[in-house]
Amino acid sequence: MTDQQRPLSAADRSYVAFVEVAWERHIRLAMLLCGDRWRAEELLQDSLVRVYERWRRLSRLDDPHAYLRRALVNNHTSIWRRRRRESLVADVPDRAAPGGGSDPDADVLRRALLALPAKQRAVVVLRHYEDLSEREVAQVLGCSLGTVKSQNARALGALRHLLNRSFDSVSR
Question: Which CA distances in Å does 43 have to 3, 55, 88?
Answer without folding.
Answer: 26, 18, 21
